[in-house]
Amino acid sequence: MAFGTGPENPPPLIQGQHEGGSSAAALQAGRPEPDALINGIAIIRAFTAKVVAGVGFLALTWSTVVLLGGFVSALPIKEFWFLTFISMILAST
């Protein structure tokens, strides 16, 4: 019978290491697990995406109110066309 590291013969654990593979010294040094770091980054990115989408929705709503809500008469013609262009860009994304 040959010696190997298959399921019947797992490699021996190094001192200070548990079944998950990360060392106890890394955990005691205050460094987070890699999974926790990746999850944290994913949560921050999702939150940022939600905030950006919300701000875009508010900008589109505000520009629609300005264009259709009767404030058009108070806008100079150049600002009216800029606002119309920005609204079309926001609506298409």
From TrEMBL:
Residues 1-28 are annotated as: Disordered. The chain crosses the membrane at residues 51-75. Keywords: Membrane, Transmembrane, Transmembrane helix. This is Uncharacterized protein.
